[in-house]
Amino acid sequence: MKFLIFFLLPFAISAQNDSLLTSAKDSAAITTNATVRDSLQAPFKLKARQFIIPGALITYGVLATETKWFKKVNFDTRNEIMEDHPTFRTTIDNYTQFLPGAAVFALQAFGIKGESSIKKELIVYAMSIGISTAIVIPTKRLTRQERPDGSNNQSFPSGHTAIAFASAEFLRREYWNVSPWIGVAGYAVATGTGILRMYNNKHWLGDVAAGAGVGILSTTLSYWLYDKIHIGGKNKKNQAFIFPGYSNKQFSIGLVKQF
Asked: What is the mean predicted confidence (pLDDT) over 26-51?
């Protein structure tokens, strides 16, 4: 269906505009030195409007698993995809989910500086992936929704899409001041990842929407946590950062400490 290509991308453009509004006050403090930029940036503050887009996406995903009309949209979307592309299969979505995040470090390597130092970017991105994983995997086990292809009951929400949108939001936040189109490109890749999950018959539309919301939310929280759980102060060498993780059916807390 043609509308699939544009289902999630408008949220990227809306989020881009939100970034320009919320970050304009800090732009004068940004310099070419990444470490100085980190020290000059105001602490990240959570605002209600930052939850509107991910909240809407997650709400749609939940409705798609619980209500008759939205379930019908799930089935109609899957049936139309399978009718038009019954043999479509690809594994590229295993890699595109990380592409926007990798782009941040590639741009840094080519000398195009983002909002933060590489150290902060590494920690924030690790926290974002950790939060996404800590939300997605337990939710899959609790909801036990069957995948469209019937392979298992770990469909809701889409983990690939969650990581893809966490990566896209990370790219957007780091490079909004360089060009808003960098963020739009990252969200286009993330949207493509979600669409590929549906074309691979691994996820319903609702799974992809909820995964997108989880991913955006995870990155937003990771920037907030970076400033909130920051031991030792911005100008001290003794600093520590804590982030959650989930692996092999176990929750964990990661600690990164600088001496």
From this structure: 63
